[in-house]
């Protein structure tokens, strides 16, 4: 069971870190929905951990912006706006650039081939998007598939960097990004010519070159280019919060 497994892990990973990873997985897979209240008691029972590590994990997630603790109301999974999204991608660019720098000489041929396979599928899905008359369920399924592939790709690189704290932080950033995009929905990408920044296959090509600084620069250019593209697409949606509109205006 989870508790017995946790006790055998030793000093390499604390109970709090294990709880953080498990809670992030529950949120990422939709088992704990965005905006929902999180009960420490029920979560402790579900994870089979004591209240102390679960409380510490939620405190850490609150400091990272995943959940928010409201006095006399409880703990809730945060719902995000465009300002949060911009910050998330800036953090991702820094962290993933460093992860790529560290991982470049650790990734073997089998890992690179898997990254290439995921990248090809991911970039094709991202370019093709979905049709305007797709149902909401079809759109959410498409976005969920994109997020799953994107998570597999970027975490495949991150896990090779050898820094577990970078991995935990990146899991958090990917989760926050997913919550924002699924919360507002995005229109299909209409024009392939809009993509002027490196894609996932370009990142693998950079890794194969074996120069860490090139990998870092390629990953950062890809993520920041993606951020700018999403901002343009979000701006087309309308019906955004006043805070989001203010943020978009400041970025114009």
- What is the CATH topology assignment of the largest domain? Four Helix Bundle (Hemerythrin (Met), subunit A)
Low-confidence stretches: 1-12
Annotated CATH homologous superfamily of the largest domain: GntR ligand-binding domain-like
Give the topology string: H per helix, E per strand: HHEHHEEHHHHHHH
By DSSP (H or I, 4+ residues per run), the number of helices equals 11
Radius of gyration based on Cα positions = 19 Å
Please estimate the helix content. 55-70%
- From the helix content, strand content and strand pairing, which structural class follows? mainly alpha
Describe this protein's structure:
With 252 residues, the chain is mainly alpha-helical. It folds into two domains: 2-77, Orthogonal Bundle (Arc Repressor Mutant, subunit A); 82-240, Four Helix Bundle (Hemerythrin (Met), subunit A). 68% of the residues lie in helices and 4% in strands. A three-stranded antiparallel beta sheet has the order 1-3-2. Helix 2 packs across helix 4 (51-63), helix 6 (109-128) runs antiparallel to helix 7 and helix 9 packs antiparallel against helix 10 (212-235). The protein is globular.
List its traits.
single chain; 252 residues; mainly alpha; Arc Repressor Mutant, subunit A; Four Helix Bundle (Hemerythrin (Met), subunit A); three-stranded antiparallel beta sheet; 11 helices; 3 strands; disordered N terminus
